[in-house]
Specification:
Number of strands of chain B: 14
Family (chain A): Belongs to the TrpA family.
GO molecular function (chain A): tryptophan synthase activity
CATH superfamily of chain A: Aldolase class I
Number of domains of chain A: 1
Distance between the termini of chain A: 30 Å
Helix content of chain B: 40-55%
Number of domains of chain B: 2
Enzyme class (chain A): lyase
Largest interface: A-B, 40 and 35 residues
Shape of chain B: globular
Protein name (chain A): Tryptophan synthase alpha chain
Distance between the termini of chain B: 52 Å
Largest sheet of chain B: 6 strands, mixed
Oligomer: heterodimer
CATH topology of the largest domain in chain B: Rossmann fold
GO cellular component, one term (chain A): cytosol
Strand content of chain A: 5-15%
Number of strands of chain A: 9
Structural class of chain A: alpha/beta
Chain lengths: 254, 394
């Protein structure tokens, strides 16, 4: 069974961390990964930097720009993590934008991910319809779970379509925003979390965008299976470096 | 063969809507409504009245006698430079502001490079009394100060895009991010035939008034609706889409697209997307774009701020790949010379974008009795500083 599915079956609230590969320094990718695992996170999203990250706010934009300046490329990432399964056994997801994948070659990209032991992909700008028509069979051939996003504006009907096309978890964007923007959760989020919970979807949901501390983590996991932290983690990494990772994770889930 | 958009939002291999889920409701709302709204008689009436009374349409189809004599062909200029605000851009912003109102939107955002589309958007927002926020790259804000001032006079808020290379592509990213953060009350007026479906088609339809008029006007002047060629400069490609539109599926009419070669196609400073671009995704559309081997989008260069977009609209990518369109690239130097030529021969100072389309006649030879219609997409006032510096006119 795919590592993501196995982890989702565990009876615990999952903490997933997003970080940008090749940041702060080009060769930090593997040290960051290993420190995150040591700190007890349940899942990791490895961000493949892109020049024009439409869905991202300033923090992740800045880390992406810096990583590209450091010399990060798709091939470089695959090379850095080629032996990652010797030391890391938690689910690993590559998150990035579709154009770099398209240039690498969709099938070649998937084959490489499978060879390394990547479990899933998040490509925010590869929409459901295009995925189903052109790429689903390739992803499935390599047992890569494609994770789709939903937002408070997504209709129930479309959520059901996404649920049908998914076989891992649904990435529940907490509010209508780019990454790193929201400050705490209000009634809008609580209502939205309840609405989704009431749909009784076949896939569990993991909440992302706006999770930054123990309070928001607890609020998100009150109804959802887990939460993803990106911008807040990058900020901490920028300020405190790799040695600050354990403290950051402890501050989220003591 | 059909060169227009299909029901899935594609022109051949190009187009589609490669957008994050956060944008899906906005884009889907537009997709479901845009044709229906555009076909409402009330919409048509208001759109056409504004084009006539406010924009000043129809714009003349002017026979450029002395310019024609120089090259031994018959050259007509479609005078979009005479539109209110000085370029064809306003055809689209009038259409989109009416669309936004019918969709109940109260807040308008736009991106702009040189500032022409920003000014055209600020203008229609003033006309309709709607809030207007224009994203503009920090670098462009510095080099296009008069247009920034115009937008401010018109009541718009100009927001400096500080990400990436701080130019048009980054202003577009920022506008898209704004839309993600304001999903219900905001309409995004894209300025060219780019972006996710239905934008390329919607903008092309609003600009198609250009070729609709050419057909009528040419019939009056030459006794035929079809020229031998229609010629336009292409950055994103909205003025080109406008003048090609009603000729797309008519093989008797040659389509010529003129891109900016900058300092030369292989100089490393160019914006000739058809020559240098590869298939990829930019701003929600699958099209040809300039990028690294690794799929990072690169920054193009042209002396003309309206042509330095790293992609090209999906309609044009398909015209290129299918061979329906003939793509020519023109250097800064040749474009500037052609702009000066037209000024002296016809008393018309063209925008530098347009000057690229005027510069093809030294290398591209035509038959003596060929009738060629060039879209004179904008006037050169905004470029005076560039002309002055380039030709040392001060």
């Amino acid at each position: 069974m795919n590592r993501i599915n196995k982890r989702l079956q565990e009876d615990k609230e999952l903490l997933s961390i997003y970080f940008t590969a090749g940041y702060p320094d080009l060769e930090d990718t593997v040290p960051v990964l290993e420190e995150l695992v040591k700190s007890g996170v349940d899942m990791i999203e490895i961000g493949l930097p892109f020049s024009d990250p439409l869905a991202d706010g300033p923090t992740i934009q800045q880390s992406s720009t810096a990583a590209l300046k450091n010399g990060m490329t798709t091939a470089k990432l695959f090379d850095q993590i080629k032996d990652i399964r010797k030391t890391v056994d938690i689910p690993l997801i590559v998150m990035g934008y579709f154009n770099p994948m398209l240039q690498y070659g969709v099938e070649a990209f998937c084959a490489k991910c499978a060879e390394i032991g990547i479990d899933g992909l998040i490509m925010p700008d590869l929409p459901l319809a295009e995925y189903q028509e052109h790429y689903q069979s390739i992803f499935e051939k390599y047992d890569l779970k494609m994770v789709f996003l939903i937002t408070p504006q997504t209709t129930d009907e479309r959520i059901r379509q996404i649920d049908d096309a998914t076989n891992s978890f649904i990435y529940m964007v907490s509010s209508a925003s780019t990454t790193g923007k929201t400050s705490g959760f209000g009634n809008v989020q609580t209502d939205y979390f309840k609405r989704i919970a009431a749909l009784s979807l076949k896939n569990p949901q993991i909440v992302g965008f706006g999770i930054k501390d123990e309070d928001t983590f607890k609020a998100a996991t009150a109804t959802a299976k887990g939460a993803i932290i990106g911008s807040a983690f990058i900020k901490s990494l920028t300020e405190n470096g790799i040695s600050g990772i354990a403290d950051f994770i402890k501050s989220i889930r003591p | 063969m059909n060169y227009n958009v299909n029901e899935k939002g594609y022109y051949g291999d190009f187009g589609g809507a490669y957008i994050p889920e956060m944008l899906y409701p906005n884009v889907e709302e537009l997709r479901q409504n845009y044709i229906k709204v555009m076909q409402e008689p009330e919409f048509q009436k208001e759109f056409n009245e504004l084009l006539k009374e406010y924009v000043g349409r129809p714009t003349p189809l002017y026979f450029a006698k002395r310019f024609s004599e120089k090259y031994g062909v018959k050259i007509y200029l479609k005078r979009e430079d005479l539109c209110h605000t000085g370029a064809h851009k306003v055809n689209n912003t009038i259409g989109q502001i009416l669309m936004a109102k019918r969709l109940g939107k109260t807040r308008i955002i736009a991106e702009t490079g040189a500032g022409q589309h920003g000014v055209a958007t600020a203008t229609v927002c003033a006309l309709m009394g709607l809030e207007c926020i224009v994203y503009m790259g920090a670098v462009d804000i510095k080099r296009q100060a008069p247009n920034v001032a115009r937008m401010k006079m018109l009541g718009a808020t100009v927001v400096s895009a500080e990400s990436g290379s701080k130019t048009l592509k980054d202003a577009t990213n920022e506008a898209i991010r704004d839309w993600i953060n304001n999903p219900t009350d905001t309409h995004y007026i894209i300025g060219s035939v780019v972006g996710p479906h239905p934008y390329p088609d919607m903008v092309a339809r609003f600009q198609s008034v250009i070729s609709a008029e050419v057909k009528k006007q040419l019939l009056e002047k030459e006794g035929r609706e079809n020229p031998d060629y229609v010629v336009a400069c292409v950055g994103g490609g909205s003025n080109a889409a406008g003048i090609y539109y009603h000729y797309l599926d008519n093989p008797e009419v040659g389509i010529i697209a003129v891109e900016a070669a900058g300092k030369g196609i292989h100089s490393g400073e160019s914006a000739a997307t058809s020559a240098l671009g590869k298939e990829g995704i930019i701003h929600g559309s699958k099209t040809l774009l300039m990028q690294t081997a690794d799929g990072q989008i690169t920054e193009p260069y042209s002396i003309s701020a309206g042509l330095d977009y790293p992609g090209v609209g999906p309609m044009h990518a398909n015209l290129f790949r299918s061979g329906r369109g003939e793509f020519i690239s023109v250097t800064d130097a040749d474009a500037m010379k052609a702009g000066l030529d037209l000024s002296k021969l016809e008393g018309i100072i063209p925008a530098i974008e347009t000057s690229h389309a005027l510069a093809i006649f030294n290398d591209r030879k035509f038959k003596k009795d060929d009738i060629i219609v060039i879209n004179l997409s904008g006037r050169g006032d905004k470029d005076l500083n560039t002309y002055i510096e380039y030709f040392d006119l001060a």
